[in-house]
Amino acid sequence: MQSNNLRNSNIELLRIFAIILIVSCHFTLHGIVSVNSEDSFQVWKNGSIVNRFFSSIFSIGGDLGVGIFFSITGYFGIKMKSLSIRKIIIPTMFYGCFCSLFYFVAVVFPEIFVTPSAAFKMFFVPCTSGIWWYVTAYILLCAIAPTLNNIFLRLNFRGEIFTLVILWCLFFIDGISNGMICHIEKAILYYLLGAFVRNSRISFNRIICLVMLYVSWGLFIVSFWGCAYDIKYLNIMYKMAPFIFVPLATVSILLYVCKIPEFKNKHINEISRHIYSVYLIHDSFYARQILWNGIIDIEYVYNMNLFPIIFIVLVVVIFLVCVGFDFYAEKMYILVNNRIMNYIERTFYEK
């Protein structure tokens, strides 16, 4: 593994941007827009025009952030013989145990629905239970990455385009119908989009990339408003948005970042090394509900004139707390992992 100081900080900064987008999206969709209620947009529609517009900017964040992560994996993974799952399994096992303890915090809040089954999944099977769908999809992607690489590297330009179109069709059909393997199809599609950018024979300048990004992002926002106010055709467009606007935005931003001259910054690289913990902690089953339905009075904050500033501050605080916690926790779970692996090698392997 490369040293933090040697990694391309362009890409590491993009990772940080992606996780901030995800946290911001969760603030909007799990907090302001109550996705599990019948009138999910009721609180959102009661906000001022400024607050509605500001929060809608981040409605794309979850899908776009995930797309960026998978495409970065493909961008580098296409040149590798295999992808390591150890770097994701070890922290997931640790945070599965840690985040299951949030169950005892969640029961304090009467407005939060708690079930011990989620704690059981996080504690015993955090990687494969789907409690963090991204983790399960990533592990499956790592398993099939060598085969994907072997096939994709043999293709010419037309073969690459044909493969991506077929994958997009499968992702679209399964996604619209809420298919069981939609997440792994998403992972494969974005992985190969990242590989396509790495091998791309098409040259885009940065202005074109920015125009593509702004248009796709803007259309997503328009469709979000259409869904909120139940405008028929815009409502349909919102359902299509994750399959059209998000892939376009993902490829655009990855192309743009790759066009920027490389630079290396040890502070950016160090922060980026801990961003996986931000996802695991803030989007764990109980922490998600504690944040958006317990600790933070979302409706009160959303109706404040300073909401955009408070929004930014809260997202940054969540990000920094999770990164800071992992900075110290990493030493613990790496030490525990090393001792366990040493014990296994001494006990079960021939000397």
Task: Set down the secondary structure blueprint.
Layout: H1 9-32, H2 42-45, H3 49-57, H4 61-77, H5 86-100, H6 103-106, H7 116-124, H8 133-152, H9 157-176, H10 182-198, H11 206-228, H12 232-259, H13 266-272, H14 275-282, H15 285-295, H16 298-302, H17 307-348
Helix pairs in contact: 1-4, 1-13, 1-14, 1-15, 1-17, 4-10, 4-12, 5-7, 5-14, 8-10, 9-10, 10-12, 11-12, 14-17
Which key phrases capture this entry?
351 residues, mainly alpha
Would you kindly provide a written description of the structure presented here, covering whatever features stand out?
The protein is mainly alpha-helical. The protein has one domain. It is 75% helix and 0% strand. The protein has helices at residues 9-32, 42-45, 49-57, 61-77, 86-100, 103-106, 116-124, 133-152, 157-176, 182-198, 206-228, 232-259, 266-272, 275-282, 285-295, 298-302, 307-348. α1 (9-32) packs across α17 (307-348), α5 runs parallel beside α14 (275-282) and α9 runs antiparallel to α10 (182-198). The longest helix has 42 residues, at 307-348. The radius of gyration is 21 Å and the shape is globular. The mean pLDDT is 90.
Structural class: mainly alpha
Number of helices: 17
- Share of helix, binned: over 70%
Q: Return Rg in Å.
A: 21 Å
What is the count of structural domains?
1
Beta strand count: 0
Question: Which word captures the global form?
Answer: globular
Estimate the strand proportion: under 5%
Overall pLDDT level: 90
SSE sequence, one letter per element:
HHHHHHHHHHHHHHHHH
Any low-confidence stretches, pLDDT <50, length ≥5? Answer: none
The end-to-end span amounts to 26 Å
| Biggest sheet descriptor | none
